[in-house]
């Protein structure tokens, strides 16, 4: 097995493994440690069935079933192929989307931080990918925190923020949700803005997503201004990697130390990604107030 950093900011490519064949205990320990160290791993050229993908993902912890919170998906997208596997796709069959997120841009986010216990990790497999576009970007939130100027750090290190649950990262209102008119009252979960990672004990900036975020106990205008400064800063080139998909790619990221987003793509191209998500654990503050 060879593990090669993707760039100085985030991610590593793992070569010399066949995920379909499964990893022995020693190989899995190395992969797991590389995932914690590099925040995101890429495996190229894999050929997986849904069962093989879910078996790989389940090595990282219990899987979460599809949330079914998006409108107009065929059944609970993914359930037909394998329990606990979701589909991300723009393909429409019989008038229904076969998966989530369509062909538009998905904003920067960590997965489901609007829950008290967000997932630990997510896995994506490129089953069918377009010839160009639909790049997926990742940002390293350990690095963003480590390099953050001291004046900005001091403004957030004891603070908590509200992570709103109303919209998907593609900007679609979730089933049963109402438009947000006041971010201070929006539904969601409150998390420390700087967490102590439960496995590595490293400190990481934890922002979730920009849409409808609110920094608790601040004036609304001050919260908005500070969030804008933080988001401008943390998705800079010094912290990011842009993934250009090939069929057979598998990505796994640590949801506690990363953000990700996706570029829009040509709607005439088909894109079908298979996705698994691993259940999380509580996220402690790095700086108890
Ligand atoms: C996601 O945000 O989980 C999906 C990213 C992608 O479609 O590349």
Please name the defining characteristics of this protein.
single chain, 289 residues, alpha+beta, Double-stranded beta-helix, eight-stranded mixed β-sheet, 5 helices, binds succinic acid
Question: How would you characterize this protein structure?
Answer:
The model has no long low-confidence stretch (mean pLDDT 93). This protein has 289 residues and is an alpha+beta fold. The protein has one domain (2-278): Clavaminate synthase-like (Double-stranded beta-helix, 4-Layer Sandwich), CATH 3.60.130.10. The protein contains five helices and 19 strands. It has an eight-stranded mixed beta sheet with strand order 1-2-3-17-9-19-4-7, with helices on one face. Succinic acid (SIN) is lined by residues 88, 101, 106, 122, 136, 169, 260, 262, 273.
């Amino acid at each position: 097995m060879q593990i090669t950093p993707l760039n100085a900011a985030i991610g590593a490519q793992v070569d010399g493994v066949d995920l379909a064949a499964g990893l022995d205990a020693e190989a899995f320990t190395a992969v797991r440690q590389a995932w914690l160290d590099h925040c995101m791993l890429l495996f190229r050229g894999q050929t997986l069935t849904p069962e093989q993908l879910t078996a790989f993902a389940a090595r990282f912890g219990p899987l979460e079933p599809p949330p079914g919170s998006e409108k107009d998906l065929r059944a609970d997208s993914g359930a037909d192929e394998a329990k606990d596997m979701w589909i991300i796709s723009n393909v429409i069959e019989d008038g229904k989307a076969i998966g989530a997120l369509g062909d538009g841009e998905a904003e920067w986010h960590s997965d489901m931080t609007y829950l008290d216990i967000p997932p630990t990790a997510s896995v994506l497999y490129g089953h069918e990918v377009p010839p160009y576009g639909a790049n997926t970007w990742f940002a390293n939130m350990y690095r963003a925190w480590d390099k953050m100027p001291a004046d900005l750090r001091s403004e957030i290190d004891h603070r908590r923020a509200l992570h709103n649950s109303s919209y998907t990262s593609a900007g679609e209102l979730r089933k049963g949700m109402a438009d947000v008119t006041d971010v201070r009252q929006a539904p969601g979960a409150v998390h420390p803005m700087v967490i102590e990672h439960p496995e590595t004990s490293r400190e990481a900036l934890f922002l979730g997503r920009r849409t409808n975020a609110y920094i608790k106990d601040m004036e609304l205008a001050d919260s908005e201004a500070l969030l804008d400064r933080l988001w401008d800063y943390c998705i800079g080139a010094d912290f990011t990697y842009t993934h250009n998909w090939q069929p057979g790619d598998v990505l796994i990221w640590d949801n506690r130390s990363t953000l990700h987003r996706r570029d829009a793509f040509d709607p005439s191209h088909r894109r079908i990604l298979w996705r698994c998500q691993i259940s999380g654990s509580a996220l402690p503050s790095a700086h108890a107030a």
